[in-house]
Amino acid sequence: MPLRDRLSAALKDAMKAREAERTSTLRLINAAIKDREIASRGDGASDDGVGDAEIMAILGKMVKQRQESARMYEEGGRLELAEKELAEIKVIEEYLPRQLTPDEVAGAISAAIAETGAASIRDMGRVMAALKARHTGQMDFGAVGPMVKDRLV
């Protein structure tokens, strides 16, 4: 079942169960997906809508935003708001693939370097593209970039 359909079904189930916080989070996810669809229509993209890979990217971005917000709320002493952000993260993460462990990330980087035949920093783009094609939503590419760079220098 496509991710979009799973999210819609989960929203209906949450509404029927009267789970207010879960319903709210799922509505935010659907709104973000619709925003991306509207933006892609303006770019002249196809009418297919948003694919699973794009939805996973949206969800990953939403998790990062909430982690940052929770951290800021904790620093500001607003623990109830931080807890709300953390609860939203749990709901969003239900629809993301399992995150790779540091050892698995290192192995994936090694495999991508070997597969692309990367030898210098100029090959970093090809390595990152290979990683994104295979591991979208499973690793933080902001953290992986410097690791790839260190290996290629």
Question: What would you say this structure looks like, in words?
Answer:
There is one protein chain. This protein has 153 residues and is mainly alpha-helical. The chain has 2 domains: 3-93, Uncharacterised protein YqeY/AIM41, N-terminal domain (Hypothetical Protein Yqey, Chain: A, domain1, Orthogonal Bundle), CATH 1.10.1510; 102-152, Arc Repressor Mutant, subunit A. 75% of the residues lie in helices and 0% in strands. It contains 7 helices and no strands. It has helices spanning 3-16, 20-42, 52-75, 79-93, 102-116, 124-135, 141-152. α2 (20-42) packs across α4 (79-93), α3 packs antiparallel against α4 and α5 (102-116) crosses α6. The relative contact order is 0.10. The mean pLDDT is 89.
Give the tags:
single chain, 153 residues, mainly alpha, Arc Repressor Mutant, subunit A, 2 domains, 0% strand, globular
Could you give a short description of this structure?
By secondary structure, the chain is an all-alpha fold. The chain has seven helices and no strands.
